[in-house]
């Protein structure tokens, strides 16, 4: 099991529980979609899985390690090594080129900076179809190119898990399908586990399993 959530509960205020004793198990290499109404807690759940926030109660295991036992500092190192994030808006740094943005997650760790990382970046750039635009800045790129750059940045450290929160939400339909296909291909080629939050059933159907988040819990839903 790559990831196991047991009875995870989270609320932001006393009068409303967002996640209510939620359970989830994900094996390495799976592709999971999470769908559900706006405000149902999908981003809240991804933030917990991504260790950007902690649950009020319940346990979370990653590769059998109990994450509640980690200090904030240990979590930061864990997150940088094991998890790649892709958001609805790309969050690229405007002053850096595409190439520099992709290398950003490697700058915090000396042992990540070497020939191998540069080769990895080159390979991802080619894989994402970005070879022509590597020296351009985000303002000089299309929305689809920015999102593909964000995916490359998420993958640079070879994480075991990619968390994508509406990664195609700001794209036109063609770019959205193109990005989804790329994510699926990377899952198949590199074995990276994918959790994708989406409002699009077409995107969700490309995953192995679809979960619907409603009233604080996940229900497996038929595609
Ligand atoms: N930091 C916060 N403080 C207080 N309330 C919050 C906070 N973050 C989220 N909420 C509330 O928790 C609920 C769930 O929010 P969340 O962002 O997880 O929903 P979502 O399913 O991702 O919605 P959407 O599909 O619109 O992105 C919402 O009602 C939101 O207002
Ligand atoms: Mg959200």
From TrEMBL:
<keyword id="KW-0547">Nucleotide-binding</keyword>
<dbReference type="InterPro" id="IPR003439">
    <property type="entry name" value="ABC_transporter-like_ATP-bd"/>
</dbReference>
<dbReference type="GO" id="GO:0005524">
    <property type="term" value="F:ATP binding"/>
</dbReference>
<protein>
    <submittedName>
        <fullName>Lipoprotein releasing system ATP-binding protein LolD</fullName>
    </submittedName>
</protein>
<dbReference type="InterPro" id="IPR015854">
    <property type="entry name" value="ABC_transpr_LolD-like"/>
</dbReference>
<dbReference type="InterPro" id="IPR027417">
    <property type="entry name" value="P-loop_NTPase"/>
</dbReference>
<dbReference type="GO" id="GO:0005886">
    <property type="term" value="C:plasma membrane"/>
</dbReference>
<dbReference type="GO" id="GO:0016887">
    <property type="term" value="F:ATP hydrolysis activity"/>
</dbReference>
<dbReference type="GO" id="GO:0022857">
    <property type="term" value="F:transmembrane transporter activity"/>
</dbReference>
<comment type="similarity">
    <text>Belongs to the ABC transporter superfamily. Macrolide exporter (TC 3.A.1.122) family.</text>
</comment>
<feature type="domain" description="ABC transporter">
    <location>
        <begin position="3"/>
        <end position="223"/>
    </location>
</feature>
<dbReference type="InterPro" id="IPR003593">
    <property type="entry name" value="AAA+_ATPase"/>
</dbReference>
<keyword id="KW-0813">Transport</keyword>
<keyword id="KW-0067">ATP-binding</keyword>
<dbReference type="Pfam" id="PF00005">
    <property type="entry name" value="ABC_tran"/>
</dbReference>
<dbReference type="GO" id="GO:0098796">
    <property type="term" value="C:membrane protein complex"/>
</dbReference>
<dbReference type="InterPro" id="IPR017911">
    <property type="entry name" value="MacB-like_ATP-bd"/>
</dbReference>
<keyword id="KW-0449">Lipoprotein</keyword>
